[in-house]
Amino acid sequence: MAFNALVPTLEVENMDETIQFYESYLDFKCIDREEDAWAFIQKDDVDIMLSSRFFKDKHPKPVFTGGLYIYVDDIDVIWQILKDKVDISYPLENFEYGMREFAIYDNNGYRIQFGQELETN
Length: 121
Fold this sequence. Notes:
Layout: E1 9-11, H1 15-26, E2 29-34, E3 38-43, E4 46-51, E5 67-71, H2 75-82, E6 87-94, E7 99-105, E8 111-117
Parallel strand pairs: 1-4, 5-8
Antiparallel strand pairs: 2-3, 3-4, 6-7, 7-8
């Protein structure tokens, strides 16, 4: 039995604004879309599905207590591109567990973390 991929599905308030955020700031492309109900966005090997809100009366705002962690090749370049354009969760720093990373919030408040392994000598 094999697991082949994990594709998170994020509930969003406004499909157009969310797609624009991911395309403009993170260079994703919208691969498929069904009006305001659902969309599939992709950049390189990273896939995310977006959906309209379920149970909006019970949960008025999108809620996700974790983060999406994306491994990248050049963390410093990505940091320079994003740091003055988006809401920062935590700034670029090196961590003792061997990663250089930072995190942002998307337009729905979801935390997206970017990380690159520190080079070891």
